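If your schedule permits, I should be very grateful for your opinion on a structural question. I would ask you to consider whether the tokens describe a fold that such a sequence might reasonably adopt. Thank you for your consideration; the sequence and its tokens are set out here.
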Amino acid sequence: TYSLNTGSNQNYFEFGEMFKGDYVIKVASVSDAENTADSDFTAELAVTKLSAPSISTFAVTENKLTWQADSHASRYDIILTIGENIVTDSVVTNEYTLPASLSAGEFSYQIKLIGDNTKYLTSDYSEIAYAEKLASPEFSLVKGELNWSSVANASGYILNINGTEIDLKKQTSYSFADYASGNYNVRVKALGGNAN
């Protein structure tokens, strides 16, 4: 049980400092004048402060952050820290597409659940989670053989030829010996491990 005096000029209370969990709230006016009695308490209001998302449920897959959904969240707020830059955003599902401008390297992020502020109150931010965007492979074509440098922490590679993707697993080369003469648009992508 908590008893809080918010002062005579304040008619609200911020739940930011409260622990996650269930609360029953009643409000009364307290007199500070002679010959004036305190009011009765209002009817009880039951509210729940949502738990911050657990980083054990976070994953990075195909340039998207994902986490465990909460049916009581009306949306999710994200803080993404990339070097000295901070990006804040909101989404209504438990999935966030990383900015296309995100360059290779480490970044961190935090997520909080936004409640309906009627029955479910906004959670605190999660702990800081760290992830890395892999560098793009550098490749060269010599005598019909495409070769690329191994990328640290890559779980495999995808080769895209004229829009068709080929999963090359850990392979770092590909032969064009059986291809007909012509022009080909070729791209190589390093795959992350989908955890961070």
Q: What stands out?
A: DSSP finds no helices and 16 strands in the chain. The chain has a mean pLDDT of 85. The longest strand covers residues 105-114.
